[in-house]
Description:
Two copies of one chain form a homodimer. Chain A has eleven helices and 13 strands. Chain A is α/β, with parallel strands linked by helices. Chain A has one domain: Ribokinase (UDP-N-acetylmuramoyl-L-alanine:D-glutamate ligase). In chain A, α1 packs parallel to α8 (240-255), α3 packs parallel to α5 (162-170) and α9 (260-277) crosses α11 (291-305). The longest helix of chain A is centred in the C-terminal third of the chain and has 18 residues, at 260-277. Chain A is globular and about 60 Å long. The two termini of chain A are 35 Å apart.
Amino acid sequence: MLRxxxxxxxxxxxxxxxxxxxxxxxxxxxxxxxxxxxxxxxAASLFSQVRMVGVIGDDFPEEHLAVFRTRNIDLxxxxxxxxxxxxxxxxxxxxxxxxxxxxxxLNVMADFSPTIPESYHQTPYVFLANIDPDLQLSVxxxxxxxxFVMADTMxxxxxxxxxxxxxxxxxxxxxxxxxxxxxxLCNTASLVVAGRQLLGMGPRLVIIKKGEHGAxxxxxxxxxxAPSFPLEEVKDPTGAGDTFAGGxxxxxxxxxxxxxxxxxxxxxxxxxxxxxTVEDFSLRRLIDLEAGEVMLRYAEMQRMTLFTA
Amino acid sequence: MLRxxxxxxxxxxxxxxxxxxxxxxxxxxxxxxxxxxxxxxxAASLFSQVRMVGVIGDDFPEEHLAVFRTRNIDLxxxxxxxxxxxxxxxxxxxxxxxxxxxxxxLNVMADFSPTIPESYHQTPYVFLANIDPDLQLSVxxxxxxxxFVMADTMxxxxxxxxxxxxxxxxxxxxxxxxxxxxxxLCNTASLVVAGRQLLGMGPRLVIIKKGEHGAxxxxxxxxxxAPSFPLEEVKDPTGAGDTFAGGxxxxxxxxxxxxxxxxxxxxxxxxxxxxxTVEDFSLRRLIDLEAGEVMLRYAEMQRMTLFTA
Lengths: 309, 309
């Protein structure tokens, strides 16, 4: 999108596709498009060609697939199964940093086993969005060694399948999770200790997401702090972290450059995309996002962090 | 300190002087030097000539006064009264962002009424550290209009003397408080809304302190986000916010420049000083801090926030 003639690698994204019902102090949305794979794929599609992997039920609205197609997202890896689509419902209170789950119905996700289409096997960039770590490992078994794999996870898997989460972490180039999850996994209050500890488990890049407080990047030789973009109103924080991760990976794939300096840029682009996602429910704001809007906030992020010697 | 030949204005600091007893997961300290005026004065003394105002009891150890004198801090505004010095005791749990108070004994602070010495009356920079807003207003009555006044406050006064806190805010150039206090005072979850709202009350500078997440600066035309310096271990967070504020004001007085660009620098210097304070109990680390250490972390703060277009 931003530099059409730059190196441009495809990116495969594996994760949940769902229908969300969400209640926030600023409104309600019922049965809207959600799921980590959706937010991250649409975000990444702003930068690179996305190959999506996931499962939908026979009730999944055709209009959502049409949206993905208009973003040039490859849907060969989407399985449609008999039964209802994955559903999540939750609410946010005054402090919107914390999602409260009302119900999770796995539905067709319960028996999902990702089958990576032959046409995806050589994808150089891979994002394993938050999903059962056994499924993340199964994806890694099916692909020819990609250039760069990032995995996300969550407290549910850290508590229930800790060993499998650690195995995923040991086999990927990058790992991302939110601050509470990093503290929980590493059993420390210090995010700096957690970041270094995660690096010690194998990945060469660790990104800790801190919601409204931005994100921290750890690599062997680098440490970077990105703020979040300041918003007066957040309507629905659902999908912010997935949008962020999709933006990061999308930008890395697009530029085909995972140097520390370029990861910094990718993180800022991820933050910018997430700042748009939370301005409305579901993917509404993200879907219509224009290149100029992304560039504008990127430049503002530079201005708001700069100080001289 | 950093540029000995730059403009160099004196700074008056009014606030509590106390003896703290502190328990953290990393140790215990009993009857150690504490209080907002002490942390902020020693921090500011790294940059500028400090004139201190406060009250001590007849049990206040002479050695602490000696420390202030070695930092060239003017003690003409310190009243020694009969009775015990102000004491605070508290503890921190695993999450060190939150102090838990065990006991507050105002002692000689209970009847404290600051009398500003004639030799302080023309001080161009003033920091009204966290203290009863009636005392902050009384100080403003006694001084000839200073160039730049910053006030701090806390939840105790916001709850108990809200109108007086608002009057202080309306009469100063700058206000600082932590994120929870800004949310409480402005009755909003959004720090961006709170920052703008505080600007609307009169000050031309608002700094919201976010502990380990850094600080936000709001002015009419500017917004700046400073991270905190990443530490693997925090021994005792007491005084971090006061150190930060003292560092900010000390640098502004030293450079005699309250432009937006210079306030950004001052905030980063404040963050750097606070990062040293929390590495040990009381003012231990701050007292021996050397110029080179400050410059080193300032440069690291630049490196960790930089990203290019």
